Amino acid sequence: MLLNRVCGIFIHDVMDTNYLAVLKLLLVGILATENINVESVPRRPSVALCNETQLLWEMEVCGEGFKREMAYVDPQNWCNLTHFISEYHVFSLCTETNAGRINCYWPNPLVESYIIRIHKHFFSNCTLERVILVDPPDDTLTILILIPVFLTLAMIALVVWCSKRSDILA
Prior knowledge:
The protein has 170 residues and is an all-alpha fold. The chain has helices at 17-34, 52-70, 85-101, 109-123, 138-164, 166-169. The radius of gyration is 38 Å and the shape is flat.
């Protein structure tokens, strides 16, 4: 009966039951918030923003180390990954570690643009020769065209023949 007389409002049996449920939730909410200590509520850690200036500086540091290591590799071997795979791995690990250390995700557009600049500097002449596509010989091409055509005609003939002989096959 106490819940039915909240704030001096008498709830009749005719009133909506949702009104009673909302009032009960309001009362429980008021009672529950009185017992909560605000200092005991854990706060979310503040999210540090990515310092893009420091990120670019760190990418330059990583790139300079990679350039120093690539100076020991003969330029004729720059297109052969086996000659500099460990140097490239160190460069990639350096960019990823430093980006994470300054709270930047990796890869991001700044890191990607720097890596593209490194690739253009060292690996711009490493494109493979284009493969020239050639048509197959005429005999092979004719066979490849005629087989599906004859199979299609054979399937059509089989369907027509079976539909005419449906009384025997059923």
